[in-house]
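Posting this for the archive.
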Amino acid sequence: MTSLSKAPLNMAPLNMAPPARGRHYGMADLIRSEWSKLVSVRSVRRTFAAFVLLTAAFGVLVCAVAGTRWSHYTASTRATWDPSNLSMIGFAFGDLLLPITALLMITGEYSSGSIRATLCASPKRWSVLAAKAMVAGGMALVAAEVVAFLAFLAGQAVLGPPPHATLADPTALRAVLMTGAVVALMALFALGIGTIVRHSAGAVAAYVGLTLAVPALLSALPGHAERFAPETILSSSVSTVVPQPHLLTPWVGMAMMALYAGISLVVGGVVLARRDH
């Protein structure tokens, strides 16, 4: 996955060469260019394979194991049984893999130096970031939704004796759809971080710290502050069907993640517009 940051300088497609006099690249050109750069990197294909395997397989494994232990569960555990959330548990990996791929879309260009060609072809830096956001967000949304449905259906199929969830249940369907949507928002959040930090290792460390380390730190504070952390929003708000006390509701959690993504991209856009290259 990290090989994206070491992509050669000529990774940018030919249509992003410096424009001829009088020619201006539109948003459609930028989106095509960003898509070409994304799918041409071998590490991206490997990351997608790892995302599908780890995310879906881990959820299926957890469902299979939990199902075999149903007869040993206490009444209180059965009362809070949430099979939908069990199927989505593999997104503990997915919320790292896809967002880091989005993050490397910008830091990889800084590492290789190809960011100069990109900005020479399209001096409007907000447009460049918008194109990257559309490609990264669209890629993450489609991939996350497909894997969310796959993990849900496969997980319920191996659950065994315990109560199952079905997509006919609006709350279960909502949990599946919102899980994919929030992962896409996390990808945009990561893209903004990458735009701000520029360096792959530092940006990855910042994203991982904000999604994994921050909830642990916030849990030590009074007032259940960890409920506002991205990882907690994904795992304990949007992917759940059974309400959990002291945590955000699914819709509030999704709104918070959209706010984080928006702030990250706006700050990243301001930094990109003002920074010298």
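The radius of gyration is 20 Å. The chain has one domain: 28-71+79-274.
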